[in-house]
Amino acid sequence: MNLFSEIEKTIDRGFRRFAQHMFGPAQSDELLLVHRAILEELAGKVQTVARGEPVFPYPHVTVTLASADPDRRALYQTAFGEEGRLEKDVRDTLEGAGCLVPRGFALEVKTAEAGERQFEIEYSAERRSEPAAAESHAAGQTGRLIVVKGKTAQAEYTLDRTRTNIGRTEELTDADHRVVRRNDVVFEDSAEEGQDVNGTVSRKHAHIRLDAGEYRICDDESQFGTRIFRDGRSIEVPAGNRRGERLKSGDEVYLGRACLRFER
To answer: Which domains does the chain have, with CATH numbers?
Structure first.
């Protein structure tokens, strides 16, 4: 059943703009093909019930993208999993076509080192109340960030998600006013004390990713850089490197002149 027409094209164009802006034309072409293929496969699961109403019958879907390259897996997670982007696009596509979506619908994005196809989709009739992002509990104690220098809304943040964004504004939007990123740890923009420190934190400065039980910090091409201070030495986090640097308990993470301490 083909639900897509102008609805699909609109969502397709939105994802293309996002991918080109975030990853460049070369990467965005492949991501767009994967994005389309996932939407089309999900549309094939739509069923027609009484009175001819289209219904998507699965409240929980898991999309697993496979690659032996850790950088490629990180790219997939960022492009499709961050901010629930793929889940939103699927929901918007189905609802825009007049398809009934189960209450509490959730789509989870995972990555794997190997697979028979570039992606696999699992469908579940059961609702999931807890995100599988809690892989951290299987690997040990959940990490946390303690604010050492700079002004934020909280003094401490728990790293209980697969990705935690850090920056100097709550939301970043594109030219069409679509939200392309939300920061979880926000260094405030204000004229109050600490402004000079906060001003060295870029709007999309860095993110911390939970990968196979490890926390890794990546610099998102910030202006003043990211570095880790550990055991009396400074470790530079390469800008734009999706692999990032592994964090160890007690590390002090400098974002420009602002500082967070990682504990686990």
So the answer is: 6-124 (3.30.2320), 135-263 (2.60.200.20)
